[in-house]
Amino acid sequence: MSTTTPPATSMDAPPRRRSGASILQGDIARRALTDSLAKLDPRVQVRNPVMFVVEIGAAITTVTWFIQLAGGSALGGHDPAWYTFTISVWLWLTVVFANLAEAFAEGRGRAQADTLRSMRQQTLATMEDGSTRRAEELHRGDRVVVVAGELIPGDGTVIEGIASVDESAITGESAPVIRESGGDRSAVTGGTRVLSDRIVVEITQEPGQSFLDRMIALVEGAARRKTPNEVALGILLAGLTLIFMIVVATLRPFGLFAGTNISDTTLISLLVALIPTTIGALLSAIGIAGMDRLVRRNVLALSGRAVEASGDVDVLLLDKTGTITIGNRLASEFVPMPGVDEAELAEVAQLASLADETPEGRSIVVLAKQYGIREHDLTALHAEFVPFTAQTRMSGVDIDGQRLRKGAGDAVIAMVQAEGGQPPVQLRESLDRIAGEGGTPLAVARDNQVLGVVYLKDTVKEGMRQRFDQLRAMGIRTIMITGDNRLTAKKIAEEAGVDDFLAEATPEKKLELIREQQAAGRMVAMTGDGTNDAPALAQADVGVAMNTGTQAAREAGNMVDLDSNPTKLIEIVEVGKQLLITRGALTTFSIANDVAKYFAILPAIFASTYATVRGGLGPLHVLNVMSLGDPRSAVISAIVFNAIVIPLLIPISLRGVSYRPIGASALLRRNLLIYGLGGLVAPFIGIKLIDLIVHNLLGA
Amino acid sequence: MTVYGWGLIFAFAVVLTALALPLGRYMAAVYTGQRTFMDRVLGGPERLIYRVIGVRADRGQDWKRYATSLIAFSLVGWLLLYFILRTQTLWSFTGLNPMGYHSMPWNVAFNTVSSFLTNTNWQYYGGETTMSYFSQMAGLAVQNFVSAAVGIAVAVALIRGIVTRFSGSERDSDRAHSIGNFWQDLVRTVLYVLLPLSLVIALILLSQGVIQNFSHYLTFTGITHIAQTLAMGPVASQEAIKLLGTNGGGFFNTNSAHPFENPTGLSNFVEMLAVMLIPAALVFAYGRMAGNRRQGYAIYATMMVMFLGAAAVCYIAEAHGSPAQHAAGLHTAVRAGTTGGNLEGKEQRFGIAGSALFNVVTTVTSCGAVNSALESFTGIGGAVPFANLSASEVIFGGVGTGLYSILFYVLLAVFIGGLMVGRTPEYIGKKIEAREIKLVALGILITPLSALFSTALATASSAGRASIDTAVAHGPQAFSETFYAYLSQANNNGSAFAGYTGFVQPVAGNVGSHGITFADLLGGFTMLFARYAPILFTLAVAGTLVNKRVSPAGLGTMRTDNPTFVVLLIGVIVLVGALTFFPALLLGPVVQGLTGHLY
């Protein structure tokens, strides 16, 4: 009837893991280095056609070098052995750098996974009948009892009791949360600890399928499948590789026709320089890092496809309460009846609310202060608190025989009439007006006299309008979902600045709305937590379930937000877009680089072609615009540049290219300028600099 | 350079645009089944044709059926033309073989048939010395019409694939996979577009002095007192469709340089217009069919910018003359009464600008007609047609082929650009995913693959080298000739840097018929592969796109109808073309352009 307690450190001090490991963290780097060598296995490389071609090229040049060492002649051309060796080394390095990028990305995920795995200790579960069973033997439908101090053995739903649970291991949030049977707060996660009370949990997952298991698989990249865009880009890169293979293969006979024999080593160098190795090397790292960035934001995506889809979102459905508005109605205005002073109304309302600890009550006291009414001390007044009940639908105090009440309009009217009073005609008007505007009116009465009405208003959270403006700039429409009537919904929608709203929403209406939007070709994202959100979450293209929500909701969505912050969707969309932008930008950069590489390698190859003097410089020598030292150093410089640009770009691919909501056209111009034009220019500078070093080394 | 020269280029662009706009509107109506003013005249014949060939024209075809119909039609057309050329003597009874020409040998016939079927019109034969009027009219001219119509049909099918929108419930029906009906597109193109325009162009050419007769060749004694033969024939009718259909196969061997094909400066202007008219109009038709004319304008702008760039470079280079001419002390500056520049191989009546522009017009499109000798152009001026062909015929391009080829580049640009704005790339609301990218990559691969592979075979083998003019057996000129021959055939263009031959060897001592057959077959297969493989990929793309869900455009969607996209598209086209062909170009025209040597 207890659990084997795991090492305290792993639970008590969750290393706010999502704050992230630096790239240069020692153990990750070491592990990445060994991994990158292990990944040289051709069976691993063949999955990446671009890098596989490089590896084959490296192998061929290595063999050529051995033949040269053994005294044989190089295949085509009269290369010295050191040249073949240098090219060969840098080709291997190119592959290793590519592996390194992937290993780094995986390493960062693995560090997080290790922390999670340490929670998956040998937990013993106590069954309802008192017997015990090992946690990994629990099946769907089993019921276990968990008491204070114990770890919850598996994912499930609380079916009995209420308890405070420390979920910091999962969420990184140290404050305990309440989990209770029924309602929307019934889901518990395996590996979290019950701090108080006793609950009975019905297990909802089969062994190995738990939230923790999936989370580990995800951050480790084990469950990673290529996303649709990644597949498409991979095909394009393979196509480009094929084109350049044809270009390079046909260059041998063309050269021979012009009396120039190009060596295999040089041809392979040209091929490697041309094929999109930069993006080919970083492609999988970008994908893994994208997932990782989400995890850092405490969002678990259950598939890479969902992350990518979030970049495409056109419509965002947001619940009004708790997301757009604070969810508590706050006093915003006192509406006195004829003949009543506003300050008098404020004072009575304040007195009636002093003992009321609800947010509404406190807000009345706060508002009354603005009328210069100081806070009374209830005990000094000998006041007696009359709490709110469902029957009376009002609360207040009795002071000196005076009965001060505030409550629902009808209830107060009924009370006043029973006391023989006559509510003023303006009362009904005020009540209707406030209700019509989306507010909640509270009538305030003293004995048989209605003094006025307190205007309670649902307030929009601060900064929401800016957020929606930001979303609009990204091209995303927001639709507010609320159970309120149309009028109320309209008013709040206007105040918050959302594009549209769905009033008097039911789960069916919500689902219908999503289907409608999807039929019009839009991608829909939504957040939800309740069981009745589950169908809509499942239907939406991006469904983000709140971690505080029910198990049903968490399973229906394709992402879980551990912080349970509904506006997190904005960040998720950004990460999704960043993922695609990074891929597109580096592809552009990679292809644009080829121009400079041509100007480095081709003049080198054809330096003496059609020369008037045998062995002298031919007409094509003028294309050596970078005035690189000599043909061999030119080829080596291009290959060295091609290789080292990969590790140089690892930080960008892990961090992602920054996204700004400035509209697609401006974004395209910006990225074309940076990565297209930059990609054209950068290698001219880089290759020249490398050549200065290489040529001097050779000259020495 | 002269004001006249620049004025000609400018006027051409303006008049072309002015004519293409209304024609595009008309063509959009023709392909969307709207009523046009031609219905009253052509509606009857159209229905009659359907009845005769037994086709339900209103029945849509999915891409596989469309492709099957197209291939079947082409196969029958190939066999028929081969039969006609191989049995030329058999048709002498018609009286349309006044010179009693023999039938074509099998190897040249294979090349010629493949050439005319693929809208290439590469000619390993001399028209007036080998072809009977019957072969020209019943054989070649027919393919001039239908090969053009096939190209346009494929373009229209792709347009439908892109612009068709089905609502959710419709998307499941069979109908929702239809990219149109091949037979309807074919018949309507010939009847509603090619025939009426050909008639108009032929009449204008006739007015300028282009001949149209079935007469025996004339003999006369010229001022040199030597008896000469003057070739005759039904030229005007064939000339019109040769240009309108971007075919380019001349009635005479010297093509549009021949005074009976292209007699005046005005006919030269009209001929250039005829070449570009349909490719330009199709772009506007596309914008209309897409429901957003700006989509068409963006592509038109892309093409026009690249076209004007090519024209300017070529004109400046030719007006300037080559380094070798300067070295030889030839006057190349504009002097009183002369245009200056490099007039070698050019007709006086067209001048520098008229020749340079014609050259650019027929090499950006897949027309391949010539009114001057490309091999006599300066290094840079001659590099322009190379560059045009390296861009894979997307700058206006062939009728239909130009549009569907540039749309492949558009999809590529949309994919790369779309990623850069952070959304799954989409074009006119349709997502570009793995399947489309696979087809696009393969489609774009075909031209470089066939051009480079064939050139490599031709330069590396003795049989291939046998076709090179022995006067330049080695060196950059020999390479240029060979490379251009296969680049031209792989682009279905048909123009040539004369010298590479598959018919008559100018000098004895070659490998002889062995080498001739090699050039005929390699060229023939290159043309067929480079034509039909992209067509199949295009129809497949149309097939996958047509049924796609359409997403409405928003702020986050990359726009494909603004200047930024035009810049991106030009960048993609230039980069792909340059990266593919730069090494090969170095060894030919670039070497020639960089030295004062004559090779």
Folded structure, characterized:
The complex is a heterodimer of chains A (700) and B (599). Chain A has 23 helices and 22 strands. Chain A has 700 residues and is of the alpha+beta class. In chain A, a hairpin with a 4-residue loop joins strand 1 and strand 2 (132-134). Helix content of chain A is 51%, strand content 16%. In chain A, helix 5 (81-117) packs parallel to helix 10, helix 12 packs antiparallel against helix 13 and helix 22 (631-655) packs antiparallel against helix 23 (664-699). In chain A, strands 10-22-21-20-11-18-19 form a seven-stranded mixed sheet, sandwiched between helices. In chain A, strands 2-1-3-9-4-7 form a six-stranded antiparallel sheet, with no helix packed on it. Chain B has helices at 3-31, 39-53, 63-86, 106-117, 127-130, 133-163, 182-208, 235-244, 265-289, 293-320, 323-327, 351-364, 379-390, 401-420, 434-460, 462-465, 475-490, 513-546, 563-594; strands at 218-221, 227-230, 426-427, 430-431. In chain B, helix 6 (133-163) crosses helix 7. The relative contact order of chain B is 0.13. The interface between A and B is large, with 78 and 67 residues.
Give the SSE map.
The complex is a heterodimer of chains A (700) and B (599).
Chain A: H1 8-12, H2 26-38, H3 42-45, H4 49-69, H5 81-117, E1 124-127, E2 132-134, E3 143-147, E4 156-160, E5 162-166, H6 168-171, E6 177-180, E7 187-188, E8 193-194, E9 198-203, H7 211-220, H8 228-257, H9 264-274, H10 277-296, E10 299-301, H11 304-311, E11 315-319, E12 325-336, H12 342-353, H13 359-369, E13 384-386, E14 394-399, E15 402-407, H14 409-418, H15 425-436, E16 440-446, E17 449-460, H16 464-474, E18 477-481, H17 486-496, E19 500-502, H18 507-519, E20 524-528, H19 534-539, E21 542-546, H20 551-556, E22 559-561, H21 568-605, H22 631-655, H23 664-699
Chain B: H1 3-31, H2 39-53, H3 63-86, H4 106-117, H5 127-130, H6 133-163, H7 182-208, E1 218-221, E2 227-230, H8 235-244, H9 265-289, H10 293-320, H11 323-327, H12 351-364, H13 379-390, H14 401-420, E3 426-427, E4 430-431, H15 434-460, H16 462-465, H17 475-490, H18 513-546, H19 563-594
